[in-house]
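Appendix B, Record 12. Input sequence as logged:
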Amino acid sequence: MLQTRRRILLVLTGLGGGLMLMSAPALAASARDIDAETNKALDLLYSTQPRARNLASRATAILVFPKIIKAGLIIGGQSGDGALRVNGTTVGYYNISAASFGLQAGGQRFSYALFFMNEAALQYLQKSNGWAIGSGPSVVVLDKGAAADLTSTTLTHDVYAIPFGEHGLMAGIGLEGSKITQIHPGP
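Logged structural output:
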């Protein structure tokens, strides 16, 4: 009986995850929607973490994912679309996605801003056919306290990531294992 319940749970979880991944293109936002959400997300980031604006002024580019949805029940996944900004202008659109397996349950929505601090890191993103976080440029995730302590002498990494706007109940919002791929949304 216990084995049967486990199998049913695994099948239902797998089907739910598969349906979520299959329906992602149908839910894809337009470029206009992504840009509008990116503007709102940056406003939120700068109002809740004022030092992030200083980091942005030193960055070569900023990749903002305004809404990443993460959900899981043993098998989990996360996905979201974002805009790459250079000098305040969108130059490309990207999707971040990841899958996971393990002891997990819940759902969460959050935002991420990736600050590319040099041209080499930006070119790696733009020229790679999908960037798996953990390979390529070094990424340092900053919390509110760490972002406040950044100065021009401590900015030594290729990419800084700041999570913000978290809502929901699920442990962890790490980037490790996530893949960032360029997308081409409609207008």
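Helices lie at 2-23, 31-48, 51-58, 119-127, 144-148.
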